[in-house]
Amino acid sequence: MKLTSLALSGVAIISLAGCETTSSRAYQVVPQNTIALQSQVGAGAKKVSIGNFSTAEGVDAQMTCRALGALEVAPGQTAVEYLRSAFQAEFLQGGLYDQVNGQQIQGVVEKLDFNSFGTGSWKVSVTLKSASLPEGLSVATDFSFKTSYSALRACQNVIDAFQPATAQLIEKAITHPDFRKLTGG
Description:
Elements: H1 2-17, H2 31-42, E1 48-55, E2 64-65, E3 69-70, H3 79-93, E4 103-115, E5 119-130, E6 133-146, H4 151-174, H5 179-183
Parallel strand pairs: 1-4
Antiparallel strand pairs: 2-3, 4-5, 5-6
Helix pairs in contact: 2-4
């Protein structure tokens, strides 16, 4: 009898834990990136379009967080798709985006990793390439944030921190000395 009660209690706990979920948000452009892009346009940067973003060998874009399972950083998008759409949104807002006539920029995600224990962090690096800069320019960010002992809260913090980590990565790209060359300017 005690064994049956214990087994049922275990099943109930596992079932309830399976109901916990995190929520993700779409990327929001950052004013300082818009201003930086507008100054790049004034300094001779050309209009761009955003091509394919992929992962380098060994980069796992299917991330999981603790025992909660798959980490969804944006509604219906992988982390790589999120990065691509964030660059697109920033370039559009900054007046640098032209899907038809813009020089195509492609991205390779070289690192995509997070830590949800202790001091949390996102470590993301990407190499952006174009016809005018085939060797590409590489940028990286190491964005720190607070975590939690609770798996649910810690994983939600991981998701919430991906947007500012992405914005910081984009800022590093658009302020890189080779950015205008990347655009063909």
